[in-house]
Amino acid sequence: MPLHRIRKDPRGHQGPHRKPTQLRSGEKMTQVEQTAHKPHVIIAGAGMGGLTLAAALLQKGFDIDIYEQSPELREVGAGLWISANGSCVMAELGLKEELEKINLAPDNRVIRFWKTGEEYSVYNRDAGASKTDHTLIQVLRAELQRILYEAVIKLKPNAVHFDVRSVGAETVGNRARLLFADGTFAEGDVVVGCDGAHSRVRQSQFGPAPARYTGAVAWRGLAPMSSLKPQHKRALASTWVGPTAHVTSYPVQRNGEQFVSFSAQVDSDVWQTESWSERGELSDALKDFEGWNQDILDLFINSENLFRWGLFVRDPLEQWSNGRVTLVGDACHSMTPYLGMGVNVTMEDAYVLARCLERQPDDIEHALKRYDAARIDRANLAKEKSMEMLKIFHAPALEHIETGRPYIQKNWAPDVVRQRYDWLLAYDATTVEL
């Protein structure tokens, strides 16, 4: 399948030393150039966290530079959903309209029995019993990344420097440095590691964070609706549950073409690589889901590409910031996908950090302590609650419909779903007290 690509800026990364802006007579300063008094933020990684943080800071008048190890932004097809706690950040960034353009909103969210497809509605979007917004925005990850990237380079065209591998960070006096593999560095007032679960910035500040295998392997893929049966074209966010596996699927679009994005997790004693861009074999997927409803098997069979990886967790960090270096997203709280909160909690991190830096631009270390205090407990709790869902999704009671039906009705009853999600969805990173 075609890969989403954002080409490398031919000017390349500027490196550690940059000349001050020189203006000719009569020229006006741009928004970024007018804000020399604001801290300069160095960001490692141009994923969702790094780009969200960059957009927020640029809008608040900060200067930023992002260093990305890939030669270009390239994402294989993967869907994600943005819930209310993430969409409020996008709205504050002025990107809600762009987000809606790529959204394929579900009419319902359902739990389905693995063998028969019998379904139970759990969507509280229009339910009066819950005052919390349960609306889901369903998009391709690559499309969300494109929107954020375009928002960043609109404010600072040369903000993202590709093909630069970060190996750590350090605080030197009242400055922070992002260290590169070639021995050079970029220096600013603060460094933020948005460099994912294998974060080298985190390792440089807090040491190794050993990954523990969860006992589950994940599959994901993207199947064109044109290749699927009519029932796949329903506007549903579905989670199929079984005794040893579950599958979440929902519609997404790319350039007007519609797909079903799916993520499947199955119990496995066999360890796989932690990378979620490793290819998997169709025969292995069909073996893992032998006996499942044909609608699920059709997703695997018709997927443009299949990817398989092991799900790992790390112990939660009690501290994210050290000196003038801090972390965002998977770098500090990578979590399992069982609540669908990974990207949303990352967006929360990014916006709260931007607010903390805006509040105390002249006292970076205190601003970062405020950030830690505002975010760590919530993110770690979300991480914990997500992992707890594995034993709910995979349960012996789901082997047969006679025991599966009451199990589903108990564990996905409206009040249970509200208790599971309301505290997550009600959070507003743009207004929460700091």
Topology diagram in text:
Elements: E1 4-6, E2 40-44, H1 48-59, E3 63-67, E4 73-75, E5 79-82, H2 84-92, H3 96-101, E6 108-113, E7 119-121, E8 137-140, H4 141-155, E9 160-161, E10 166-172, E11 175-180, E12 185-188, E13 190-193, H5 200-206, E14 212-224, E15 236-241, E16 245-254, E17 257-267, H6 282-288, H7 294-302, E18 306-313, E19 325-327, H8 330-333, H9 342-359, H10 364-388, H11 390-393, H12 401-411, H13 414-425
Parallel strand pairs: 2-3, 2-13, 3-9, 6-15, 13-19
Antiparallel strand pairs: 1-4, 5-8, 6-7, 10-11, 11-12, 14-17, 14-18, 15-16, 16-17
Helix pairs in contact: 1-4, 1-9, 2-9, 9-10
Can you walk through the features of this model?
By secondary structure, this protein is α/β, with parallel strands linked by helices. It has a domain at about 5-75 and about 140-210 and about 315-385: 3-Layer(bba) Sandwich (FAD/NAD(P)-binding domain), CATH 3.50.50.60. About 30% of the residues lie in helices and about 25% in strands. It contains 13 helices and 19 strands. The protein has helices at about 50-60, 85-90, 95-100, 140-155, 200-205, 280-290, 295-300, 330-335, 340-360, 365-390, 390-395, 400-410, 415-425; strands at about 5, 40-45, 65, 75, 80, 110-115, 120, 135-140, 160, 165-170, 175-180, 185-190, 190-195, 210-225, 235-240, 245-255, 255-265, 305-315, 325. Strands 7-6-15-16-17-14-18 form a 7-stranded mixed beta sheet. Strands 9-3-2-13-19 form a 5-stranded parallel beta sheet, with helices on both faces. Strands 10-11-12 form a 3-stranded antiparallel beta sheet. Strand 2 (about 40-45), helix 1 (about 50-60) and strand 3 form a beta-alpha-beta unit. Helix 1 (about 50-60) packs parallel to helix 4, helix 1 (about 50-60) packs parallel to helix 9 and helix 9 runs antiparallel to helix 10. The longest helix has 25 residues, at about 365-390.
